[in-house]
User: What shape does this take?
Amino acid sequence: MKPALIIVDMVHEFVRGRLRSPQAEQIVPVIRRLIDVARSCKAPVIHVVDRHLPFDHELKLWGPHSLVGSPESRIVEELQPVEGEYVFGKRFYSGFRDTGLDNALRDLGVDTLVVTGIHTHICVLHTVGDAFYHGYNVYVVRDGVAAFSERDHEYALEYMKSVYGAKIVDSATAADVLCGRQ
Ligand code: ZN
Assistant: This one.
């Protein structure tokens, strides 16, 4: 098993901006710790983040957000990648759609994803859905993902578990997975 840590949309827009989750600040330190674990265990750290163009279809629904080059599209300071970590910009909910993420993961030999980020029921859910279709083992970190509401969060966790076969785990278990102890 070769795991990678996937961090979805931990940019200013969704953590501290207009489309933020009320729980976002609580998951920042959890993801921070998982980044440290991944680094110490040599698991790839991969961000997938909204970097929209102004005419993107999705903006009709949500309004302009996390536009490419904008301050809102910057990864929050606490979770900034270092050299050797990867950032894939996306224009759709899923981190796999038109980003090259799948090829990169295969080139890295990754077969297992530990997924964190925002929002549980939108970009996390769609990324996990595509991970399922691409054949990855998926762990979703219950205390490392957040949504607009607790209802959205819980519904999406249950959906990913029952429909995509994702294992819903706490961050302590996620750390074990990242270090090959699960
Ligand atoms: Zn978006």
Residues 50, 52, 58, 65-66 surround zinc ion (CB under 6 Å).
